[in-house]
Amino acid sequence: MRAAYACHPHQSKGRRYPEPAAPTRSEFQRDRDRIVHSTAFRRLVYKTQVFLNHEGDLFRTRLTHSLEVAQLGRSIARSLGLDEDLVETVALAHDLGHTPFGHAGQDVLDDCMKDFGGFEHNLQSLRVVDQLEQRYPAFDGLNLTFESREGILKHCSRRNAQALEALEPGGVAARFLNGTQPSLEAQLCNLADEVAYNAHDVDDGVRSGLVTLEQLEAVPLVQRYLREALAEYPQLSAKRLLAETIRRMLSAQVYDIIDASRALLQEAAPPDADAARAGPPLLRFSADMRAASTELKRFLFANLYRHRQVAETRMKAEAVLRDLFRIYFEDPAQLPEEFASADDIPRAVADYIAGMTDRYALREHQRLTGQQLFPA
To answer: What is 26-310's CATH number?
Structure first.
């Protein structure tokens, strides 16, 4: 049952292009279905999380990450009386604008576009659902509800927020200018994203051999649940021990968010979704869990994301995308016609590259340069 402070689909702020209601689905269910059927969503299966697609079949991709965020988000939303369908919609769409090769791709495109407005992957996700998907005869994009678009735009620079606000006064970028919050469903997705990241990067890091359970024992959030699992099941194999530790760690973070947020919501008692937007953030970890999560992040940055092997891969990935941007920018005829004929060639190049999967970017790079920087 939805709480008063939840977003209610029949009270949605609407779509940019009015459409008749669907007979069997709520507005947020309809948004979710449009995302699942989009081209950009399918591409996520071949976009990197930490490890490149060729490095192993069991590592997370942007698609599996998005599914994990959606699962965590729905579980928490159910306990807090939020709209589960909206949470799922935002979770499934939040990475649609991510480049190939993870954050390396984001940084390269932002640098390549520094004289042309820059590149932000959250803004690109909004651009995907507002403009770049081409499925409907009457409009570009997916024509999602305001609430879904609001949640997708997780971060936005002030400069880009001002540009969006000029095009859509009082729209999804207004909160970055007036200091208000997104919906509680969007706030929840931000937390679920963090929980999923930490857990699956621990899993993938150990599976890859780049970090060990022994190293992770120095991290309090992992140590506690590792020791609990060993105390209850002293004969566990390393594989099962890792899985059980992560399961307990995930559960603890989910319950912590529910308890801490429920207390805030009861105290603030916002009468509706707009009142929740007008106040301070109302979904959060407890102070202790926030500190523990931050410490785990520091460990992952130092020992996984900056690991020599990951850094070497990142350098090659950056070279691939820099080469692609330069070639397309200097010779737009190498682009597909719909991009080559655009008025804004730098932005069209960024759109095209951002939409690539890892393996397509590598194939294009090899075709255009004759180089093969990664194993086939």
So the answer is: 1.10.3210.10
